[in-house]
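Practice problem: Ca2+/H+ antiporter
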Amino acid sequence: MPFIWLAYFFPLAALALGLAVSVLPVPFTGGLSFIETVLLIGTSFAAVHHAEGISSRIGQPFGTLILTLSVTVIEVSVLVAMMLNGENNPGVGREAVLSTVMFVCTGVVGACLLVGALRHREQEVRQQGVNGYLSVIIAISVLCLLLPQNTHAGLMGAVDPFQISFIMCGTVVLYGAFLFMQTVRHRADFMPEASEPAPARPRRLVVHIPLLLAALGGIVLVSSGVAAGVEELLDRLHLRDPDAVISAAVVAMLLLPETITAIRAARANDLQRSINTALGSALATIGLTMPAMVAISVWVDRPIYLGIEPEDRVQLLLVLVLSIVSFGTGRTNLLNGFVHLVLFAIYVMTLFVP
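Answer key — structure tokens:
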């Protein structure tokens, strides 16, 4: 493949620069932040490449699980760096989770359904597997983004640490239960028809595994510089809701490799793998990213906001209901893709004109 060497260069370069900035007294500059941002984007693609290499050798659904968990590690590291950068940014976590659900369930899913329908007219997915994704996504989205603001404490404008901790434990339990069903109890519901696990090839795994770990480590190390640079850039734009735009920009950047993977799978008439990748990333984010950020905020004694704005509530509930309808028959077509993409365009508009 052309430029395959970049999958080896970016992880090592990001890791080296991250270690250098951590050890040496390097002053923060716009140029350094730009370099770190380029390395982060390139390393994200490299991480997805190596995760896919592992995926192709260990088979589904474990391969998709590795891919989504890798992206979750990347997202948590960047968002935590943004939350802790300078003054506290307590709204970054909730905006990132909301952006991930909206981007995936409208933009990514819509693009996959549209591309797949244009090439194959109609496509099929295993309805039981998709229902599993959606049921947990709906439950966790409501618990994390809607419930905290509608409890007695939330209505009084306070945050009850016990309530939040209990809700976060519940989200982790739900995600763990889903993983058990996906990887052990009902694996067939998440696999394409007549799909067989690929045999392992130790020599290639020996290459992909350390480079994936190097990529994730490099991203963790350069994420603080990227967060500072993104916030400094967007602060100059005087946006009405900077936290929402910053979180959406980071989510869009980090979801780009998975988006490309999902669209390619849909175009190749493998909609099941496409949906596994798309919905898996959304579920991993709300099931793991939010609890991780809440735990870190408690650990460093910084506040974090969970409730979302009224217009965001309407859009979130709309896209969750639409997702149930779109996959309700197990068959998708062009109209499904158009509806999701229109909602995505409206969501992006409300980021800049809330």
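Discussion: Residues 230 and 249 are 9 Å apart (CA to CA). Students who identified this feature from the tokens alone can consider the problem solved.
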